[in-house]
Amino acid sequence: MFEFAGNLLSLQAIGLMMLGTSLGVMVGAIPGLTGAMLIALSLPLTFSMSGSDALVLLVSMYVGSVSGGLITATLLRIPGTPASMMTTLDGYPMAQAGRPGRALGLGVAASLMGGIISWCFLILLSGPLAEFSLQLGPFEFFSLVLMAMVLIASISGESLSKGLLAGFLGILTAMPGASPATGHTRLTFGFHELNDGFKLLPVLIGLFAVNQIFSEILKIHQPTQKLVVSTEGIFLTLNDWRKHFLNMLRSSVIGTFIGILPGIGANIGSVIAYSAAKNSSKNPQEFGQGAEAGIIASEAANNATVGGALIPLIALGIPGSVIDAILLGAFVIHGLQPGPLLFEQNPEVVYTIMGTMLFANIFMFAFMLCTLKWLSKLAEVPPAFLVPVILTFCVVGSYALANRMFDVWVMLGFGIVGFLMEKAKLPLAPFVIGFVLAPIGEEHLCEGLMQTAGSYWPLFTRPISLLFTSCALTLLCWSLWKHSRRRNIESPASIIQNSESA
């Protein structure tokens, strides 16, 4: 423990932590660039560092990149990272309503809370929770994915049918590529670039960033209404913390546990936390219109997934996300073996990682509050100047993923798809959820069926799988009942009947 304090509190470690967090926030705020890209590009720079210093820099970048995405998600309706996708639903409407400072302040505060709560789990429960994740087999993972996909109905807006249609389209988009059952390629239409399917990053950039660019281009000749960016409300009062504490706590716990499960990711954690906040709210109709609880749920959850994903990484050597896979490579490069032996052979590295996460979250909070006023100036830039810059970053980010123009064309194609979907009033969030979760669910279902010779019974005979499946069915029935009741209340016959009774 003393060696950990000496390593982390040295001037070099503090400087690396501040540098990594700052770079992560700025890269996370730029559409098209991701924390995974930043960490991958920075990994060769750590060859001359010690293992502890390298992990201080990389973990700080991890924390900062997840947090930075809320800036452009709130001000420009463009999520800087996929994890900030849900923040756009309420952050942008609140900014458009003249309260950008309030929206950003809520997001930064929730990010801090999510990071600290997940850090507590990392400190206290890394062993037991990592051991629990080992008990999840393929059917447990499939039932968990099934439960998450049912949540499409909870965030599909006023029309359940349009939400389910958008989710189904997302599932269809995820079908091209190699089949997890046979390994044969399918639905590639002669394009060998589709052998691995559509990449997530170009699809998300197209749906959210390029879609927004198309909308701005169509009205670029119109006089723009200057958004008055005020920092009023950035600092939360004690009453604000008390009011939103339960939502912060619940969303942070959800994000932490989602982060522990390998392959799920921060974007799914924010979706589930957002749905939980909406379903438990007394005013669910406010979500998507600038609800404070929506911003807090999304940002608390996506930052909490960082600490959750680090638990199986350092305790079992199992990466929980793309960035954790890169961090696993950093361990190997520096001669460290993540897993149970890491606690015995290199305890100072474990404590350094834990301490870095805490201090990086605190510095992220201070850094973002101090620079938000400067970063908010992005919203005042005329679209004629902003569109080319954003489009350039989108093209660079999509091309740099695999150094091929195909991903750029995919990005532009899904920009058109997103634009047409919004014109048809089809929500984008269910589309993305279906696209992200379908491959994960199919892979685990095929794996489970191979183990059981095609039997589906383990979905109902294994306790954890039965729990997730039951939750999925309950959520589906509840969502159908809620939307049916809303239609009955809003039907003309009901209105006439209510007026006559009055």
How does this model look, in words?
- By secondary structure, the protein is mostly helical.
- It has one domain.
- The chain is built from 21 helices and two strands.
- Strands 1-2 form a two-stranded antiparallel sheet.
- A hairpin with a 6-residue loop joins strand 1 and strand 2 (185-186).
- Helix 4 runs antiparallel to helix 13, helix 8 packs across helix 18 (428-451) and helix 11 (266-280) crosses helix 12 (292-316).
- The protein is globular, with a radius of gyration of 22 Å.
How confident is the prediction overall: mean pLDDT? 77
* SS field, number of helical segments: 21
Cα shape: globular
Q: Identify low-pLDDT runs.
A: none
Order of helices and strands: HHHHHHHHEEHHHHHHHHHHHHH
| Overall SS class | mainly alpha
How are the elements arranged and paired?
Elements: H1 2-8, H2 11-28, H3 35-42, H4 51-75, H5 87-96, H6 100-134, H7 138-150, H8 160-173, E1 177-178, E2 185-186, H9 200-218, H10 238-260, H11 266-280, H12 292-316, H13 322-333, H14 340-345, H15 347-375, H16 383-402, H17 405-423, H18 428-451, H19 458-461, H20 463-490, H21 492-501
Antiparallel strand pairs: 1-2
